[in-house]
Amino acid sequence: MDAKGRFIVAMSGSARLVSDDEPLYVISVAAEMAGMHPQTLRQYDRLGLVSPRRTVGGGRRYSLREVEMLREVQRLSQEDGVNLVGIKRIMELEAEVHALRTELAAMQDVMQGRDQYLPVPAFESALAVYRPDN
Prior knowledge:
Layout: E1 6-11, E2 14-19, H1 27-34, H2 38-47, E3 53-54, E4 60-61, H3 64-78, H4 84-111
Antiparallel strand pairs: 1-2, 3-4
């Protein structure tokens, strides 16, 4: 893994850098990497704990980050005794904290003069009104 959080994948004799979020692993490989049965991964997907991206044909493809999430689900369940509903809530809160930290860092950059623009939140729809100066 290089300094940018990427790892090298050798494919057909060549190597390329891919991000930790790139969906590479079929369910059987992801299950083996996480030390779980593929049916467990399907159940976690149905419950919304770890939802991989899908191919055009509907097959699941897991990224390295999702495999790490599977390991964390397993750890919370087996070592800490947290039930699946609790694990889902923990993961939702961790994602929210991450998003808030990212937003805070962007605002701190603006306040310290490293950036000129505040991030604009994404909206599903918006209404723009033009009022010319009269």
